[in-house]
Amino acid sequence: MSQQKVDRYKQEKAHRKERLEKEKKRKKILRICSYFVLAVIVLAIAFAIYRHYTPKTETPAETETTVESVIETTTAEEGTVEESTAVETEDTDTESTSEETADIESAAEETDAAGTESTAVDGEAAQAESVAE
Questions:
Q1: Whether residue 50 has pLDDT greater than 70
Q2: I need a labelling partner for 100 at 20 to 30 A (CA). Which of 15, 69, 119, 124 fits?
Q3: Which carries the bigger pLDDT value, residue 99 or residue 40?
Q4: What is the b/e burial string over 8-35, where b = at least 16 CB atoms within 10 angstroms of the residue's CB?
Q5: 97: CB partners within 8 A, 6+ apart
């Protein structure tokens, strides 16, 4: 039995360098992998904190789309309200609508006449300024 122990010791001694090299490589690879995993975890936490505390900014394209959708929604709602109001008004006041149309037309003519007069006054003022210069 003593001879068997001696043979085992000799084999261990002969393969000791190889075994130690393998253990060193395993430890080195394990250490590198551990550092890599640790770095990924730290970066993930840092990115989560960064995203939590930075305000979200909208791109101009997103803003335009949002504004357009709000305008479309508002227009659609107003159209529905106007249609329902128009149906109710037509049923009750057919005579008053023709009178209102005449009033609106006369008001528009008065506005056009006033606009023409103000344009003439503006034109005269512009001419006076150019002559003065």
A1: yes
A2: 119
A3: 40
A4: eeeeeeeeeeeeeeeeeeeeeeeeeeee
A5: 89, 90
Tokens of 131: 């002559």
What is the Cα–Cα distance from 33 to 69, expressed in whole angstroms?
Answer: 50
Which residues, 6+ apart, have CB-to-CB distance to 66 below 8 Å? 58
97 touches 90 (CB < 8 A): yes
Q: How many CA atoms lie within 13 A of 22 on its CB side?
A: 5
Amino acid at 118: S
pLDDT at 24: 97
Q: What are phi and psi of 78, to 5 degrees?
A: -65, -40
Burial of 131 (0-12, 13-18, 19+ CB in 10 A): exposed
Reported pTM: 0.37
- Mean per-residue pLDDT for 72-96? 58
Whether the pLDDT of residue 57 is over 60: the answer is: yes
Distance CA 89, CA 82 (A): 10
